[in-house]
Structures are given as structure tokens and as C-alpha cells.
Automatic annotation (TrEMBL):
Gene symbol of the encoding locus: murG
UniProt EC number: 2.4.1.227
SUPFAM superfamilies: UDP-Glycosyltransferase/glycogen phosphorylase
Domain of life from the UniProt record: Bacteria
Ranges of residues in domain Glycosyltransferase family 28 N-terminal: 3-140
UniProt entry tagged with the keyword Cell wall biogenesis/degradation: yes
GO annotation terms (biological process): carbohydrate metabolic process; cell division; cell wall organization; peptidoglycan biosynthetic process; regulation of cell shape
Protein name (database record): UDP-N-acetylglucosamine--N-acetylmuramyl-(pentapeptide) pyrophosphoryl-undecaprenol N-acetylglucosamine transferase
Binding-site residues for UDP-N-acetyl-alpha-D-glucosamine, renumbered to this chain: 10-12, 123, 167, 197, 299
Keywords: Cell cycle, Cell division, Cell membrane, Cell shape, Cell wall biogenesis/degradation, Glycosyltransferase, Membrane, Peptidoglycan synthesis, Transferase
Protein species of origin: Aerophobetes bacterium
CDD domains in alphabetical order: GT28_MurG
Membrane topology reported for the UniProt record: Peripheral membrane protein
Cell compartment(s), UniProt: Cell membrane
């Protein structure tokens, strides 16, 4: 089958699509990718030996600025023409929109050509793009069953809960191998700090301060850390995080994030949907600091859901400081029953079959 996948922007849309591509190619399906203008996207996809095309799509304006709307309409027209051309040349059986704004012109073009489409919603709260595309799509897949409640009543029959795809290697790495690969100590408790695919300066700052406080406490001999900073903060964190008692590893970006997850005992991170899908697939307890400027506060909704289910502790960024984070980390480390309860709750929401579930639905829609 010929399948056209549309994804771009942040890792939250990119990596589920990469997991889907790997699965579809393993089943000998033909895949083409349409994405945005970031160089990272092209490099990742071309490594998969998948044809990559970019479009000049722009996000929906969030203001009444005439300039923003003129720009949006112009680039939407350009990207729709580009989508027509790519669809005409590839002749897909089905189009898959992974939720970013790049999906909009391509799914609309597919609708005009009479080609079925599947759109994917990773977060609890549906994105503006997916709400706009729902009348034109054949199906919408959900990561959380609760998302159905936020869809129009008449469109809920289009919704299927598949889970959010994660890359196969995320759950395939043993702790022993990960510890050896990263040069860590297998006898120590490992904290993983990650700000998501783009990094997060405030989280990096609090991580540095928290680790310094932990070094002066009673657990300094029993813990170690992994900090994934993002490109901008890497040098700064390396300079600031020169500890004598607590050892660890600092990365600007870790393409093989599976090693970090496998080595970790507790994750401190943002709460994007793909991050949560990976954390729960690994059954890891976590402390979540939602990005406060995420559209419609969707990261907060994701985080509160997992906290309610028992798999996470949530600290709003407005209340976050090193002393509060240190206290929360110590509460979890020193309470084995709480740790086990969080692990089980996290694992319960990990959708290990999400990639297969999504692929099966796509093939079903493509066959008509």
C-alpha cells in the first residue's frame, strides 16, 4: 500500500511518525513523508530511506494581527498547491496527518482528491489543526480515551483509541546494557532530567540547583544523574554542574534516548504527549513540569491525567524551585511503596501495541 505521512515541527509529532514509518516499511509498504522546513526533520527521515518533501505551511494565527493572517493565507495557498503536486505524483492510498499544522493543507488536498485520511491526536485536548480537519478526515486516532469527550458529538464515531506510537527501541533496551553504554553505576539510583526535544532553560537551571542541593544532603552517595539540556544550554550546564560527590552524564541531545530511559529510575521532564507515551511504555515514575505556554495548556492536561492515575507527581512551573523539586524527589526515593505504585500506574497506561494499532487502522482505511 502507498501511504503518505505528514508530520513536522517538534519531536512530539516527529517521533511517533518515525515509529510508524519503521513499522510500515518492515511490512513492505511504500511510504512518502511531507514535513516542514526544519533541517532536523529531513535528516531524520532520509536516514530511514523515505522520500521527503517539505511544504511552506504556517500555524493558525493566535492573534488578530492582519499581517499574521495575510501571511497564513498566502502560505496556506502555496502549501495546498504543493500538496496537490505531491499527491498527484505519489498517488497514495491513504494520507496520515500526525497532528502538526503541516497536516492541514495535505489532508484537505487528499479530501479534494477523494483519498481517505487518518489524523492522529497525541494530547488529551484536541489541537486546533485536528479540530479543523475532523470533518474532512475518515478517522481520528486518540492516545487517551478521555479525548473523545472533547470532540463534537456527531464526529465521535470517527474516533479510535490506538495509543501514541513509540519507537521500538524505546522499550527494547535492558537496564544493564544502558548503564554500561552510558558509563553509569548500576548500584545507584538514576535521575533523568529532560526538557523535551527542544530543551527547556528553566528546567535546566532548576536541575542544576537541585543536584547541588542533593549533593549536600544524605543521598549523595546513592544517586547519579542524566541531564539532556538541548543545544542552547549544553555548555552552560556543563560549566555549572561540576559536582564532587554526585556523578552523571550531560547531553545536548540524545538520539538513542532508549538508553536514558532504560537507565533511569525516576524521570523529571515536561509533559508533551510523546514524552508521556515513552515514559509510560517504559513503566517509569515521573515528576512532570508542564510547559506553561503550551497551546490550550495541553501539557498541563496530560500531566494531571497521569497524576490522577497515580503515575506522576506534577509541579507547575510557577511553583517550581530547587527546594520543592529536591523534596519531591526525596519523597519518592525514600518511599518504596510509592515508587512501586507509580511504576505500576505508569506501566498500566503504556500502550506497547500503539504503533501496530495505528498501522492496522491506516491499512483498513486505505483499503476502503
Amino acid at each position: 500500500m502507498r501511504i503518505l505521512i505528514v508530520a513536522g515541527g517538534t519531536g512530539g509529532h516527529l517521533y511517533p511518525a518515525v515509529a510508524l514509518v519503521d513499522y510500515l516499511k518492515s511490512k513492505d509498504h511504500s511510504v512518502m513523508w511531507i514535513g516542514g522546513e526544519r533541517e532536523l526533520e529531513r535528516k531524520i527521515i532520509e536516514k530511514k530511506k523515505v522520500k521527503f518533501h517539505k511544504i511552506t505551511a504556517r500555524p493558525f494565527p493566535r492573534s488578530i494581527s492582519p499581517y499574521r493572517w495575510i501571511e497564513f493565507l498566502l502560505f496556506s495557498g502555496f502549501s495546498l498547491i504543493q500538496s496537490f503536486r505531491y499527491i498527484r505524483s505519489f498517488k497514495p492510498d491513504v494520507v496520515v496527518g500526525m497532528g502538526s499544522y503541516h497536516s492541514f493543507p495535505v489532508v484537505i488536498a487528499a479530501f479534494i482528491f477523494g483519498i481517505p485520511s487518518v489524523i492522529c491526536e497525541q494530547n488529551i485536548l484536541p489541537s486546533l489543526t485536528n479540530r479543523m480537519l475532523l470533518p474532512f478526515a475518515s478517522r481520528i486516532t486518540l492516545s487517551f480515551p478521555h479525548t473523545r469527550d472533547y470532540l463534537p458529538q456527531r464526529k465521535r464515531k470517527k474516533a479510535v483509541v490506538t495509543g501514541n506510537p513509540v519507537r521500538e527501541n524505546i522499550t527494547a533496551t535492558s537496564k544493564k546494557i544502558a548503564i554500561e553504554k552510558l558509563g553509569l553505576d548500576g548500584k545507584k539510583f538514576t535521575l533523568l532530567f529532560s526538557g523535551g526535544s527542544q530543551g527547556a532553560h528553566y528546567l535546566n537551571k532548576v536541575a542544576v540547583e537541585t543536584l547541588k542541593l542533593l549533593e549536600s544532603g544524605n543521598d549523595e552517595k546513592n544517586i547519579q544523574f542524566i541531564v539532556i539540556t538541548g543545544e542552547k544550554d549544553f555548555s552552560w550546564v556543563c560549566k555549572k554542574l561540576k559536582l564532587k560527590k554526585i556523578k552523571g552524564k550531560i547531553f545536548s541531545f540524545l538520539s538513542e534516548i532508549n538508553y536514558a530511559y532504560a537507565a533511569a529510575d525516576l524521570v523529571i521532564s515536561r509533559s508533551g504527549a510523546t514524552t508521556l507515551a515513552e515514559i509510560t511504555a517504559c513503566g517509569l515514575p515521573c515528576i512532570l513540569i508542564p510547559y506553561p505556554f503550551a497551546t490550550n495548556q495541553h501539557q498541563l492536561s496530560n500531566a494531571l491525567f497521569l497524576e490522577k492515575e497515580g503515575g506522576a507527581k506534577v509541579i507547575p512551573e510557577s511553583k517550581l524551585n530547587a527546594h520543592i523539586l529536591k523534596k519531591t524527589i526525596e519523597e519518592i526515593i525514600h518511599n518504596p511503596l510509592l515508587m512501586e505504585k507509580m511504576r505500576r500506574a505508569s506501566k498500566r497506561w503504556g500502550k506497547l501495541e500503539a504503533t501496530k494499532n495505528l498501522a492496522d487502522l491506516i491499512l483498513q482505511v486505505g483499503k476502503g
